[in-house]
Design a protein that fits this description.
By secondary structure, the protein is mostly helical. The protein has one domain. 90% of the residues lie in helices and 0% in strands. The chain has three helices and no strands. The longest helix is centred in the first third of the chain and has 54 residues. It starts with a helix and ends with a helix.
Length: 114
């Protein structure tokens, strides 16, 4: 029973660490995203006006091109973010693997003793 209790304690510790790290990263990313959004919005407005003046194209056409470019960039970055995730609970998985090996060895020992 102590084996189960120790594994549950390990899961609890790693879950708390994972939750704290997730909250910290999410908060920092939220603040950074807000700041980047406002800076980028101001940059886009000024660059669209500047390109419209230089090329004498309608600003609506330039805005459409910019929107398509941003959607393409969002697709690329979202794919990159979903593919680069490290596995969670690595210590717990390692302990469970050790436990499975230990149980197999105990079963073999009990069968050989019978």
């Amino acid at each position: 029973m102590t084996l189960v209790a120790s594994r549950l304690a390990l899961i609890e510790i790693e879950s708390k660490e994972f939750a704290n790290e997730t909250i910290r990263r999410t908060s920092l990313l939220l603040v950074a995203s807000c700041l980047i959004f406002f800076a980028w919005a101001l940059f886009l407005v000024s660059s669209i006006a500047w390109i419209a003046e230089l090329t004498e194209l309608p600003w609506s056409q330039i805005t459409l091109y910019m929107a398509m470019l941003h959607l393409l960039g969002a697709l690329v970055f979202s794919r990159m973010a979903s593919s680069s995730r490290a596995p969670s609970f690595s210590a717990t998985r390692a302990e469970f693997k050790k436990d499975r090996e230990w149980i197999k060895n105990c079963e073999k020992t009990q069968k050989s003793n019978n």
